[in-house]
Design brief:
The complex is a heterodimer. Chain A is α+β, with helices and mostly antiparallel strands. Chain A is built from 13 helices and 22 strands. In chain A, strands 1, 2, 3, 4, 5 and 6 form a six-stranded antiparallel β-sheet that branches. Chain A has a four-stranded antiparallel β-sheet with strand order 9-10-8-21. A four-stranded antiparallel β-sheet of chain A has the order 12-11-18-19. The model of chain A has no long low-confidence stretch (mean pLDDT 80). By secondary structure, chain B is an alpha+beta fold. In chain B, helix 8 runs antiparallel to helix 9 and helix 9 packs antiparallel against helix 10. The chains are: A alpha+beta, B alpha+beta.
Chain lengths: 501, 324
């Protein structure tokens, strides 16, 4: 048995790690993708990520099984429904289908992009040039609003391009909500009401500004022990316009006072509505009654089992309120510059053919190499190296959570192509008669490394161009050629040396 | 049993017969090489005329194209802005084409199953907005398009023009960076320039042919041109380093061994790309275009590496050696 060189060991370790990162799984059942908050299903303990194994004793192996098992719904009366997840049984009393969305259990940790899995993607651009921090505000506001609509399987992130344009990218996996366009292109409507009367609405006209990230007017005030843990109190100031302040004074002057343990408050609360949905109610302290003031302090608290958790929750709660208050006060209009909704059915077909294309391409190459060199061993080594390169790309992509979209797949195919080129250089160099095999392979690796750097630099600009929509190509190719030049090609050179010796 | 056999030594290593055959084969091969080498020595400078003419033709065609279309290529909806609708199911393509005539700049294409050849879906592309395109299409089909039975992709014109200008910049930057790296690797002017020139020739000739064929280029197609830079430079670097950094053998023998390696590289790339093209053309415009552009580019690359680049290099080396 020939001694295995460290380069080959490195390749073996890289392959093992990649497999580990891809983590193939053979679990049966269906996975819960999301659960509507505060629904019957939620209360029964169903959560996103759980795997449903059986419903009312019937084994569930596919999404079809699941829909069949729940065919009886909606029923007239509430019935008992047992949902068996991998961990335990959840019992629901309900007259409608459980408020969960389900999906196929991913067989690996490889994630595919929306253009392959199905889903929708919108690229939103403010109509005037805005800064990156403005985009982050926009994202916070949009996330808050979409959460209200119960859309959870959603990714919103900022993207920018070479020309310095900033965009918001909204990606929703699976089914597309019909009102999506409406939801993201329009600004949220914010209203603060006391009873039925509107005190102020979103927009610069009423809310001059909301203090954020400024310790003098926004932050955590104090933390104190409460039953079962700790609580922290936060406060921040909002500035109203004169007009809104006067309206506030007129409306509050007619209210009575409630005396509670916590303090003296007016007998009506200030209700905050986002898109006509109640998101929060604030107590109004007595000293605000009938007073015309443009500065209003908003207080609240967050609690947790420990100090740290309480602090985090208070921060989150404060940010949420601040976000709600600035909603609708974004000083620019939005435009959807790209909107794609991809049917999951077509995506599946795509994946099958892509797999077929990749496999046939590698086999065609191996055949040519076999004809040219008439050496089974070298051809097999070449095949093995190509598959290793693909496997390592997939492993790293799973590890960094990169979604493989169509451009990424094209990138992988490009790596296979250039990879084979380099391997042929190595093969041929190792066959020249003069010099020691070591010297020959050193020369081969010089060519490989030179070619690597030219490819690398020619791909870099793509990383930034085009609002990142073609980034996938650059990402997979760079991962591929880098891992190849560091791991697989040196290992291939060693294998060839063993074969030639 | 009687047997007639040729003289056979006990140990295969001392068997002279086959050896002589091998030697003879090598000799004839070498003789063939020699006569070709003589031919190449004599005419390689003249061969350079072919790529020169092709480059001039390509550049003039691109300039002519630019004067006609105000751009160096035809852009599809991913670069001009517009809507692409993919519907699963079958449809009478000709009837559909007639029905959609009123839409701006419309094109219809079918997607078929590679195994059965049956139509499984069709693609409609137009520069109109989603609602317009969807309305007309739904009218013709008689049913509603949902996210179950169809995919809709829309790109706004502002985004697509930003896309286009940035991809152009990306290609230019990529090309410049590639050239810088090549100059750093070889540190000699003429050979480095030859590599850069042959990559430039690949791109120019491919673009001219794509324009000539009337193809509409998508953002993915532009990425294919970027890939072409990588593929093209691969063989050129191999050739240059074999010719410049080696001392063993004659210039011609180095050139021919490089040719053997390089042509295998390009042929395997071509095989992979053509196979992928055949499979993907049935379902994905994006991949189909990438592979078509690469196929054309790789074919031109054979010419540009082995005539353009090899010619310039040989000239350069001979001149240098002559001076010594």
């Amino acid at each position: 048995m020939a001694k295995i060189s460290w380069r080959v060991w490195l390749l073996i370790v890289a392959l093992a790690l990649s497999l580990l990162a891809i983590k193939p799984s053979f679990e049966t059942g269906v996975i819960i993708k999301s659960v509507e908050p505060n629904s019957t299903a939620f209360e029964a303990g169903l959560r996103a990520g759980q795997i449903v194994k059986a419903v009312d004793g019937e084994k569930i192996e596919s999404i079809e099984d699941y829909s069949l098992a729940l065919e009886e719904f909606p029923t007239n009366e509430k019935v008992k429904l047992t949902i068996q997840t991998k961990e335990q049984a959840h019992i629901l009393f309900t007259n409608k289908t459980p408020e969960v969305t389900i999906g196929k259990i991913p067989s690996t940790r490889i994630r595919f992009g929306l253009d392959l899995e199905g889903g929708s993607r919108a690229l939103v651009q403010p109509e005037e040039k805005v800064s990156a921090s403005d985009i982050n505000d926009l994202i916070a506001v949009t996330t808050e609003r979409l959460n209200i609509y119960g859309l959870t399987d959603i990714v919103i992130r900022p993207v920018s391009d070479l020309a310095g344009n900033n965009y918001m990218l909204v990606e929703i996996a699976g089914a597309t909500p019909s009102e999506l366009e409406e939801l993201i292109a329009k600004q949220g409507k914010f209203e603060a009401k006391i009873g039925n009367e509107t005190v102020f609405v979103g927009g610069k006209k009423d809310i001059a500004s909301v203090c954020r990230n400024d310790a003098s007017c926004s932050g955590i005030e104090s933390c104190f022990p409460v039953q079962g843990g700790e609580a922290c109190r936060f406060r921040f100031v909002i500035y109203l316009s004169e007009e809104a302040a006067e309206r506030h004074a007129t409306i509050t002057s007619e209210l009575g006072v409630n005396i509670t343990e916590q303090g003296r408050y007016l007998d009506e609360k200030l209700d905050l509505y986002l898109d006509d949905k109640l998101v929060d109610s604030l107590f109004i302290s007595e000293d605000l009654r009938g007073r015309v003031t443009t500065q209003i302090q908003i207080q609240g608290s967050g609690s947790g089992t420990g100090r740290e958790q309480a602090l985090d929750n208070a921060q989150a709660e404060m940010q949420k309120l601040q976000t709600v208050l600035i909603t609708g006060s974004l000083p620019y209009k939005l435009k959807i510059v790209k909107l794609d909704t991809i049917s999951p059915l077509l995506g599946e077909r795509f994946l099958y053919f892509i797999f077929l294309a990749g496999l046939s391409a590698i086999l065609a190459v191996a055949l040519i190499v076999l004809i040219r060199y008439r050496k089974i061993k070298s051809s097999l080594a070449l095949l093995f190296t190509s598959f290793s390169e693909v496997l390592i790309i997939l492993g790293i992509a799973s590890l960094i959570g990169w979604n493989l979209d169509l451009p990424s797949i094209a990138g992988i195919l490009a790596v296979i192509g250039t990879g084979v080129d380099q391997q042929i250089v190595i093969l041929d160099e190792s066959r020249t008669r003069q010099l020691s095999i070591k010297e020959r392979l050193k020369r081969a690796l010089f060519i490989v490394v030179s070619a690597y750097f030219t490819s690398l630099v020619s791909l870099l600009p793509l990383y930034w161009a085009g609002a990142g929509l073609l980034k996938g190509f650059a990402v997979t190719t760079i991962i591929g050629i880098t891992s190849a030049v560091l791991v697989t090609r040196p290992a291939f050179a060693d294998i060839i040396r063993k074969i030639e010796e | 049993m009687a047997m007639i056999r040729a003289f056979q030594a006990r140990y295969p290593g001392s068997n002279p017969g086959p050896r002589i055959v091998v030697k003879m084969e090598e000799q004839t091969e070498q003789a063939g090489k020699k006569s070709f080498a003589g031919f190449h020595d004599k005419y390689y400078k003249m061969l350079l005329v072919i790529p020169t003419i092709l480059i001039i033709l390509s550049l003039s065609y691109i300039f002519y194209f630019y004067s006609q279309h105000n751009d160096i290529l035809r852009k599809d909806v991913s670069l001009t802005g517009g809507t692409t609708i993919t519907v699963s199911g079958t449809v009478d393509i000709i009837g559909l084409k007639n029905a959609l005539q009123n839409l701006n700049d419309v094109s219809v294409r079918e997607i078929y199953d590679l195994r059965t050849g049956e139509q499984v879906a069709f693609v409609v592309q137009t520069t109109e907005e989603i609602s317009e395109a969807k309305g007309v299409l739904e009218n013709f089909l008689g049913y509603n398009l949902t996210d179950e039975n169809s995919s809709v992709e829309f790109t706004g014109s502002s985004l697509s023009s930003a896309f286009y200008s940035q991809l152009r910049i990306a290609i230019i930057i990529a090309f410049i960076l590639m050239a810088v790296v090549v100059f750093i690797i070889f540190r000699t002017f003429v050979p480095s320039l030859a590599v850069v020139l042959s990559a430039f020739a690949d791109i120019t000739m491919t673009l001219a042919l794509v324009d000539f064929l009337g193809w509409k280029i998508s953002s993915a197609g532009i990425v294919a041109f970027l890939m072409l830079i990588g593929y093209s430079v691969d063989t050129d670097i191999m050739l240059t380093s074999r010719l410049l950094k080696r001392r063993e053998g004659t210039l011609n023998s180095r050139l021919f061994s490089a040719f053997k390696t390089g042509i295998t590289m390009t042929l395997t790339s071509l095989a992979a790309v053509v196979v992928a093209l055949i499979i993907t053309s049935s379902f994905s415009d994006v991949l189909q275009q990438i592979f078509s552009v690469l196929t054309i580019g790789l074919i031109f690359d054979i010419l540009n590496t082995w005539v353009t680049n090899a010619g310039i290099l040989k000239w350069h080396v001979e001149k240098k050696e002559g001076r010594r």
